[in-house]
Design brief:
Layout: E1 2-5, H1 10-20, E2 26-30, H2 33-42, E3 49-52, H3 58-65, E4 70-73, H4 78-81, H5 84-91, E5 95-98, H6 103-112, E6 118-121, H7 129-145, E7 150-158, H8 163-175, E8 183-185, E9 188-190, E10 197-200, E11 209-213, H9 217-226, E12 230-237, H10 240-246, H11 252-263, E13 269-277, E14 282-289, H12 292-308, E15 315-318, H13 319-322, H14 325-331, E16 336-341
Parallel strand pairs: 1-2, 1-4, 2-3, 4-5, 5-6, 6-15, 7-12
Antiparallel strand pairs: 7-13, 8-9, 8-12, 10-11, 11-12, 13-14, 14-16
Helix pairs in contact: 1-12, 3-5, 7-9, 8-11, 10-11
């Protein structure tokens, strides 16, 4: 039995469908019991269990986890749930996979332990895939051109925001104060090292975008593990109204509505672009999708299957540190396209712009 909390939402529904195709049974739960029943009856053809469960109700959460081999958390916002679902899973003898969660969730679980169970957090697109793919690119590059020196990452596009995703977006700065505009240099985070770039053209992004520097906990882990001299991570936003609203919005629902308006009449897209520079060349890895939630779900389902198969050791892990990147990329077929090339010129948004006519 695999229990998927939030199993009828944007990420959870896609993850459940992927897991139901390979697992014996799935249990779909969430606060809206009617929505869970409709999803199981419709999308799953009745092959599954539908549960009404509130993650903030300890007794209901314990009953949901009981009897599961793995509990997959696709509910949110993650900044409110933190480690409560994981602890309930461990108490009931289940392993745990979280589509989100990062610094705060990891710290809480590290303090209490997993009770001999396996836990994989940050098992989504961002964080998750955004940590795994730079490691993959570094491994490939070091075999041909020596150790990596600098990493540049650009992630974003034009996509809808669910209320849970909007909530996490709004709280990102508060959860990791000082990471906005920060960069990585000479072994550590440097505050206010970078500035936003407006109306810039980036490879693989259709049209001008705003690139906003943000150094997450995942980015710091990756930069430190790879021994990078420098790393720059940018959130890429195609609609300026979303960025403007994020600084003034009073609720996640407000931000979600603005994102929906920005998307009206336009084709959604999401791009993950990684450039790794070594002593002799620059390698680029790009992943493109029309649905970031489906991509997140593919990563989450892959992680759950790896845990079920016993491929992840006991204990607490970030997804990017334990999943196999080559197998992950193979699992993304049908959801996203991936490309690795040395033909893309290095991008440097931090370099001073050349002004025509200036000496």
């Amino acid at each position: 039995m695999i229990g998927v909390l939030g199993g009828y939402g944007a990420v959870g529904a896609a993850a459940t469908l992927l897991l139901a195709g390979r697992a014996a049974r799935v249990r779909v739960g969430g606060r809206d019991g009617a929505a869970a029943r409709r999803f199981v009856a419709g999308a799953l053809g009745g092959e599954g269990e539908a549960w009404q469960v509130d993650a903030f109700d300890p007794d209901a959460l314990a009953r949901f986890c009981r009897g599961c081999q793995v509990v997959v958390n696709c509910a949110g916002p993650s900044y409110l749930l933190r480690d409560r679902v994981a602890r309930a899973a461990f108490e009931e003898g289940a392993d745990y996979v979280d589509a989100a969660g990062d610094a705060a969730s990891f710290a809480g679980l590290a303090a209490t332990g997993t009770g001999g169970r396996t836990a994989v957090i940050s098992a989504g697109m961002l964080p998750g895939l955004t940590g795994l793919l730079p490691r993959h690119l570094a491994a490939l590059s070091s075999a041909h051109s020596g150790p990596a020196v600098r990493l540049d990452v650009y992630t974003g596009g034009l996509d809808r925001l669910t209320p849970a995703a909007a909530g996490d977006f709004l709280l990102a700065g508060a959860e990791e104060r000082g990471a906005a505009l920060a960069g990585w240099r000479d072994g550590g985070k440097v505050a206010r090292a970078l500035t936003p770039a407006h109306d810039v053209e980036l490879p693989y992004f259709p049209g001008p975008v705003t690139a906003y520097p943000y150094l997450s906990a995942e980015a710091e882990r990756v930069a430190a593990d790879l021994g990078l001299a420098e790393a720059r991570w940018y959130n890429v936003i195609a609609g300026d109204r979303v960025l403007a609203t994020a600084s003034t919005a009073t609720s996640a629902a407000d931000l979600a509505r603005v994102a929906e308006l920005e998307l009206a009449g336009r084709t959604p897209y999401y791009v993950l672009l990684f450039q790794l520079s070594g002593p002799h060349n620059t390698s680029t890895l790009v992943v493109r999708t029309a649905d970031s939630y489906a991509l997140t779900a593919a990563v989450t389902a892959h992680a759950a299957r790896a845990v079920l198969a016993g491929e992840v050791p006991d204990g607490l892990h970030h997804a990017d540190a334990v999943l196999d990147p080559a197998r992950m990329l193979a699992d993304l077929e049908g959801v996203a396209t991936a490309e690795i090339t040395d033909a893309v010129a290095p991008i440097d948004l931090a370099a001073p712009a050349f002004e025509e006519g200036a000496l």
